[in-house]
Design a protein that fits this description.
- The protein has 74 residues and is of the alpha+beta class.
- Helix content is 50%, strand content 28%.
- The protein contains three helices and three strands.
């Protein structure tokens, strides 16, 4: 599962970098399906980063990686 999550992040990353941000994978809990990330740069301080996380990153992760239940930022 972690490999699939990492591959999906590489697909998402260019869109975040185009806006001056980035994403760092912290952990993948295969038992619960929770993926923990840190949003960096402009994404870390953006007021709509929660929307980006839930409506964008989490939706894409759940569509592409079986078992992902949630993406949380720390």
């Amino acid at each position: 599962m972690r490999q699939e999550v990492e591959e999906t992040i590489e697909v998402i990353r260019p869109a975040l970098q185009a806006d001056g941000g980035d994403i760092f994978l912290r952990d993948v809990d295969e038992a619960t399906g929770i993926v923990t990330v840190t949003l960096l740069g402009a994404c870390g301080t953006c007021p709509v980063s929660t929307d980006t996380l839930k409506a964008g990153i989490e939706r894409i992760m759940r569509d592409r990686v079986d078992g992902v239940t949630e993406v949380v930022a720390v």
